Amino acid sequence: MNHPRLVHLTTTDMSLDWLLRPQLEAFAAAGFEVIGMSAPGPHVEALVASGIQHHAIHSLTRSMAPRRDVQAMAELYRAFRRIRPDIVHTHNPKPGVFGRIAARAARVPIVVNTVHGLYATPDDRTRKKAVVYGLERIAASCSDHELLQNPEDLPVLRRLGISHEKLTVLGNGVDLSRFDRGSGDLTAGSRLRAELGIDPATVVVGLVGRLVWEKGYRAVFEAARLLRDRDCVFVVVGPEELGKSGAVGPAARATAEAQGVRFLGPRTDMIDLYRLFDVYALASHREGFPRSAMEASAMGLPVVATDIRGCRQVVVDGTTGTLVAVDDGAALATALRALVDDVALRDRQGRAAAERARAHFDDRRVVKTTLGIYEDLLTHSMPAPANALA
Length: 390
Known about the structure:
The strands form two sheets. This protein has a seven-stranded parallel β-sheet, with helices on both faces. The chain has a six-stranded parallel β-sheet with strand order 10-9-8-11-12-13, sandwiched between helices. The chain is globular. Helix content is 44%, strand content 16%. By secondary structure, the protein is an alpha/beta fold. The protein has helices at 13-29, 44-49, 66-83, 94-105, 126-140, 154-159, 188-196, 217-226, 250-258, 270-276, 291-298, 311-314, 329-341, 343-360, 363-381, and strands spanning 5-9, 33-38, 53-56, 87-91, 110-115, 145-148, 167-169, 203-208, 232-237, 262-265, 279-282, 303-306, 321-324. The longest helix is centred in the C-terminal third of the chain and has 19 residues, at 363-381. It folds into two domains: 5-173 and 363-381, Glycogen Phosphorylase B (Rossmann fold); 188-360, Glycogen Phosphorylase B (Rossmann fold), CATH 3.40.50.2000.
């Protein structure tokens, strides 16, 4: 039996653990020797415990650091030469560029990339598009296949001259057996309300995301201020990013807390928190195919989100939630007010959201599609895996 060696590369170990681990486990079950590659961090232990090897790339960082980025590409090249994977699967933005180039330079037989949402959109400034699209064109020339989470990126990549044959719209998915409001601890929502001191009648507007302004927190805080006259509370789950540019600082957070916004920090009990929420909000300026909105939908929550790429693929406006303009706190407040005031509307849109999730957001389909790409490339690109084991 052959065991091709498969490396999945991300910037942080958190992405490998929280976003990709179910897929990595599925690839291992399908017969691959799976290695997660990222900067070291606290999530490595969970990966190893689930049977996924980890290789640390110490120079990888999410910050804008050109010198570190050059070091990371060199470190990746050395790692690929040493590990000799049969497939390197990168996840953008930065690892998608550096990883594809380093893997091809190291003569990795097969290079696959997942486009989680191009870092520029057609509406962005010309200068930004020139840089992002230029790097994408170079990196894509080093890959054997490109998996696109969002169909809106397909025409852009075609215009960049990337062959139609190496482009597949993958979509995105979550574990629907876990994110199911009808199973698990049905009392978790009530328990969390009691722990947080939230009255049973209060409507909870939930948000999940890093505390950076591009996640739309200005609009969120404005909406919270405008809804002070309603019996609702905004609950934000996610880590602070105080060392990053664009971070929501302590002063802004304190002002929001004065408006009644609750900050819970990073949490691992997300399924229980979705039971606490009555409505889910996502006010981001940029998304690829937002996992949190899919999870909330699968848990039967109506979703109010910005009318951008990614959110448009999750939310059916007026059916499973509402789409609003970017950075418009008044519009966000209006959409949320309608749901806060109308329990029947919440129930109706929540049921529709769960039905849509079951039909479109199953991560088993994502795994099946990806495995099909791997098998096709292994069959046609090489006579036998370089690390085949009898």
